[in-house]
Amino acid sequence: MSKYFVGGLVLAVLFPMSAADAAATATTALASSPAPNRHSFFTSSQARADVPAHVERMFKGLDTNHDGFVTKSEIAALQAEFDERTAKSAPKRATRLFNRLDADRDGKITMAEVASTPSAKARAGKTTRRPGSALFAGADGNKDGVITRAEFDAATASGKIKLHHSAMRGSQIARLFDSTDAGKQGRISLEEAKQAELRQFDAADLNHDGVLTPDERRQAAKINHAKRKAA
Question: Which domains does the chain have, with CATH numbers?
Answer without folding.
Answer: 28-83+168-230 (1.10.238.10), 89-158 (1.10.238.10)
